[in-house]
Amino acid sequence: MIQLIVGNKGSGKTKRLIEMVNHAVKNSNGNVVCVEKGMKLTYDIDHQARLIESDAYAISGFEAFYGFLSGILAGNYDITEMFIDGTFKIGGHDYDAFGALVKKLDKLTKEGGANITFTVSCDISELPEDIKSYVV
Fold first, then answer.
1. Planar angle of CA 96, 72, 112, nearest 5 degrees
2. Tens digit of pLDDT for each residue in 58-103?
3. Structure confidence at residue 112 (pLDDT)
4. Rounded to the nearest 5°, which phi and psi values hold at 134?
5. Which residue of 5, 24, 50, 66 has the lowest C-beta tally within 10 Å?
6. CA angle 106-107-112, nearest 5°?
7. Sheet containing 50-53: which strands, arranged edge to edge?
8. Is the entire prediction scored with pTM above 0.90?
9. DSSP-derived 3-state class of residue 119
10. How many other CB atoms are found less than 10 A from the CB of residue 11?
11. Cβ atoms of 84 and 90 closer than 8 Å
């Protein structure tokens, strides 16, 4: 399952994501992963969540971002929850490419069972119509 936390800068997306990560760590029967740009969440999320700093992997564009995320899922079948903060900072501001990423990951997660939640800094009206149903 894919979820998008959408809002403009300062709307509380990251705070909500932190709460979701910490809740997942306490309630999940598997591993919880959080991907972020920069190490801003180190002291905010539970130490049992795996924190991955995306800059260390030189991700450029949403195709590379898809490969990165699917590689994480392929490398650990016990991941039940994955959270991504700063989606457009990592993959770029290509809304259509982001839409394609969401659709590919949705298919992948239906087969693999992991839940993926993104924070997306934009107005919901800027997103492609076919991914607005993922907004929570």
1. 80
2. 999 999 999 999 999 999 989 999 999 999 999 999 999 999 999 9
3. 66
4. -85, -10
5. 50
6. 95
7. 2-7, 115-121, 79-84, 31-36, 50-53
8. yes
9. strand
10. 14
11. yes
pLDDT of residue 105: 96
Tokens of residue 119, six digits: 């924070």
> Which amino acid does the sequence have at 72?
I
- Token output for 125: 């009206």
Give the whole-angstrom CA distance, residue 76 versus residue 78. Answer: 5
DSSP helix/strand/coil, 135: strand
**Confidence band for 113, pLDDT divided at 50, 70 and 90:** confident
**15: confidence class by pLDDT, cuts 50, 70, 90:** very high
